[in-house]
Design goal:
8 helices, 214 residues, two-stranded antiparallel sheet, mainly alpha
């Protein structure tokens, strides 16, 4: 039996699912708002706008939960999410080779997860971009678009409504790409669901290299 590691504490699991369902809702309702003639999620434009705004509030609150937990409770925000020099110089290449080649030949994952080092070099890079750039950007642009009248001066200061809509749309496209990639890469454990279980139970089985060669 493989050793089990308590990898994902309860606050992180709550944040993960709040954020996941919030972003999926934003993507689906956003598609209906942007392309009402093609995307019929709710079948009602006003309802789609209301649900989109509600999901935006959920994502904003879950982002606050994430930041407070990692920055002030766990106190490992930068260590977990910012790539180190080793990650940049060697880790990214090693991990890319594993995902693109070695995994399909039964090779072991070069990254070994621990509670203090949960993410490999590519994950750190992607999560840093999502959490420190994309989510803050989608929150700020979303808040401004929800309050165009009362925040008109700020809207004009950042380039006007058209620029806000374009930036919001581009970030939505990034989220779509990230979701598909994230789900696919999550299946590349020693079993297809090995990386999904910690988000329900908190515990993950440490990978035994011999398992990948059988």
């Amino acid at each position: 039996m493989n050793e089990k590691i308590y990898l994902t504490p309860t606050p992180v699991r709550i944040w993960h699912w709040l954020n996941a369902f919030g972003i999926i809702t934003l993507v689906l309702t956003g598609a209906e708002i942007r392309f009402p003639e093609y995307a019929q999620v709710l079948g009602n434009y006003k309802a789609a706008v209301r649900l989109h705004d509600t999901a935006g509030i959920v994502v904003t609150l879950s982002f606050g939960l994430w930041f407070i937990y990692y920055a002030f409770v766990a106190r490992n925000l930068l260590r977990l999410y910012i790539p180190s020099r080793e990650d940049i110089q060697r880790g990214m290449i090693r991990q890319a080779v594993f995902y693109g080649y070695q995994y399909f030949r039964g090779g072991p994952n070069p990254h070994h997860q621990t509670p203090e080092n949960k993410f490999n070099a590519l994950q750190k890079t992607a999560y840093a971009a999502i959490m420190f750039v994309c989510i803050p950007l989608v929150i700020v642009t979303g808040v401004l678009m929800m309050n165009v009248s009362s925040l008109r001066e700020m809207v004009m200061a950042v380039g006007g409504l058209r620029l806000l809509i374009g930036a919001h749309w581009l970030v939505a496209c990034v989220f779509c790409a990230f979701l598909f990639t994230h789900i696919y890469l999550a299946t590349l454990g020693h079993t297809p669901f090995a990386h999904f279980k910690p988000m329900w139970t908190g515990w993950e089985e440490a990978e035994d290299p011999s398992d990948r060669n059988t």
